[in-house]
């Protein structure tokens, strides 16, 4: 039982660390002086798959997207912290 709790706590801590690193990177990106986003996508037909990309350089739109993602990450981090404390 103790080993199971340890493994569960270890997994939660790894997930929490990963999300906090991602949050720090997003915060740095939000405050950077130059923002650009490249979106990669694939179009799939019966015998033909083509990869393509679109670039977005509108800083305000990118900042809005990053802010929304930071809000989502904050909520997820809080949930993981609560689970970690219970274990």
What proportion of the residues is helical, as a percent range?
A: 55-70%
Strand fraction: 15-25%
> Could you give the distance between the termini?
12 Å
Count of helix runs: 2
Q: Quick one: biggest sheet?
A: 2 strands, antiparallel
- Which spans of ≥5 residues are poorly predicted at pLDDT below 50? none
Number of domains: 1
Structure description:
The chain is α+β, with helices and mostly antiparallel strands. The protein has a two-stranded antiparallel ribbon with strand order 1-2. Helix 1 packs antiparallel against helix 2 (59-86). The protein has helices spanning 2-30, 59-86; strands spanning 37-44, 49-56. Helix content is 66%, strand content 18%. It has one domain (2-86). The chain has two helices and two strands, in the order αββα. A hairpin with a 4-residue loop joins strand 1 (37-44) and strand 2.
């Amino acid at each position: 039982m103790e080993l199971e709790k340890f493994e569960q706590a270890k997994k939660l801590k790894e997930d929490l660390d990963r999300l906090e690193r991602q949050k720090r990177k997003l915060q740095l990106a939000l405050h950077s002086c130059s923002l650009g986003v490249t979106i990669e996508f694939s179009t799939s037909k019966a015998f033909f798959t083509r990869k393509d990309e679109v670039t977005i350089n509108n800083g305000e739109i990118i900042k809005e997207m990053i802010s929304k993602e930071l809000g989502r990450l904050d909520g997820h981090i809080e949930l993981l912290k609560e689970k970690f404390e219970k274990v």
